[in-house]
Amino acid sequence: MKLSTKNKTKNIIGVFDSGLGGLTVLKNFLKFLPEYNYLYLGDNARVPYGEKSTEVIYEYSLQAMEFLFSQGCNLIIIACNTASAQALRKLQQEYLKQNYPDRKILGVVRPLAEFAAESKKDIIGIIGTRSTVNSQAYDNEIKNLNKKIKVQAIAAPLLVPLIEEGWAKKPETKMILKKYLRPLKTNKIKLLILACTHYPFLLKDVKRICGKNILVPNPGEVVAQSLKVYLNNHPELGLKKTKNPSRNFYSSDKNGLFKKLAEKFLGKKIKEFKSANLNDF
Fold first, then answer.
1. Please, what CATH class does the domain formed by 110-218 belong to?
2. Cα(138)–Cα(152) distance, rounded to whole angstroms?
3. Cβ of 269: how many Cβ atoms within 10 Å?
4. Are strands 191-195 and 73-78 parallel, antiparallel or unpaired?
5. Distance between CA 277 and CA 280 in Å, rounded?
6. For 183-224, how does the pLDDT look when each residue is reduced to its tens digit (9 = 90+)?
7. Sign of the Cα pseudo-torsion (201, 39, 87, 56, in order)
8. How many CB atoms are located within 10 Å of the residue 264 CB?
């Protein structure tokens, strides 16, 4: 991989996910922070990340960061829990310092952990990919903020592939989701963190299955509010509001399914859609 430090920033916030999941974050950015330019990258050709090794997840994430910085992004949000849990720290501490010291990379784990810690709920459930759960990233972040909280995490590896195939509304998906959530309900959790940005595609079903006694926050909304505070505190990034903000979308897969599902979820046509060969980075 050839890394470069010569690309200039272009007042853009990059949003990266292994596939469709990051759209649940971007949708809330567009709702709460609509005046900024956004560039979305989905690595749909290599989704899901949740079953891959830490080394592979880091390599894929590194290629995505280099692509987004080559497009002029000032700030990148890794809207993927697996990549946030397995690659973010190394990207921040090594890759950024060596190549782009004036730019930033943020993840989604910290904002959601802070929300959980501040919720005053004593038993918190986590549902995510196998890689995210095994990393114990949420367990560690939440307990560092509030040691009294009990955290119970389960892996739900079948959900991402089903969502990527457009099966979010299928009865089979709802049945599988119900089975995944059953042990958490049995253990009487008070709050459930959807620790995969794909899962909010199932948010209504999750809330229905969990019932009124379990708080299920919208992860994208939590992350958007956290980003709003961050941007106000970091004017040095040079990210400015604009009257005619751009929205560009890239996918590493050329089959067209991403564009179709993205337009359906966002409720609008995607004008600027291109393919990205991440293996070049």
1. alpha beta
2. 10
3. 8
4. unpaired
5. 6
6. 999 999 999 999 999 999 999 999 999 999 999 999 999 999
7. positive
8. 10
138-169: pLDDT as tens digits: 999 999 999 999 999 999 999 999 999 999 99
Please check whether residue 114 is in contact with residue 19, taking contact to mean a CB–CB distance below 8 angstroms.
Answer: no
Taking alpha carbons only, the member of 210, 50, 197 closest to residue 121 is 210
> For position 8, what pLDDT does the model report?
86
Average pLDDT score over residue span 96-102: 95
pTM, 2 dp:
0.94
| CA–CA gap between residue 149 and residue 106 (Å, rounded) | 25
Name the burial class of residue 218, with classes exposed (0-12), middle (13-18) and buried (19+) by CB atoms within 10 angstroms of its CB: middle
How far, in Å, CA of 17 to CA of 163, rounded?
A: 14
Only one residue has tokens 């399914």, namely 257
- CATH 3.40.50.1860 maps onto the chain at 12-107+222-280, 110-218
Sort residue 85 into left (φ over 0), alpha (ψ -120 to 50) or beta.
alpha
**Burial (CB count within 10 angstroms: exposed 0-12, middle 13-18, buried 19+), residue 108:** buried
Strand 272-275 with 104-106, pairing: unpaired
Go through 171-188 and write b for each residue having 16 or more CB atoms within 10 A of its CB, e for each that does not.
eebbebbeebbeebbeee
Give yes or no for a contact between 85 and 129, defined as CB atoms under 8 angstroms apart: no
SS3 186: helix
Give the separation between CA 58 and CA 52, rounded to whole angstroms: 10
As a whole number of angstroms, the distance between CA 236 and CA 111 comes to 21
Q: Which fold has domain 12-107+222-280?
A: Rossmann fold (3.40.50)
Question: Which residue numbers are catalytic?
Answer: 80, 196
